[in-house]
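Section 3.1: Structural characterization of target chains.
Under the original work plan, the team committed to producing a structural model for every single-chain target entering the pipeline before any wet-lab resources were allocated. The record below documents one such target. The sequence was received from the expression subgroup and is listed exactly as submitted; it comprises 86 residues.
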Amino acid sequence: MGRYIEFKLVKQKPKTKVYHILTKKDETFIGKIEWFCRWRQYAFFPAQSIGGVVFEPQCLKDICEFIEKLEIERKATISKRIRGEK
């Protein structure tokens, strides 16, 4: 969790997850993080419905760190599958 934002799991797919990013103050939806097939990694998709969204450095850092955490978890899961573990 970030200082101003939180990440909420909204969908568990067979191999990946989808998270919404909400403000802590009033739970405004500011975007989502999900798997982007063409890049073969998780990516941040800003909300299109809100104009003039401003991200300060800490929020951007929190989003980046969360994506990095998801990538590490995904790689660990793949490694377990390859080794035949559950």
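The chain has one domain: 5-83.
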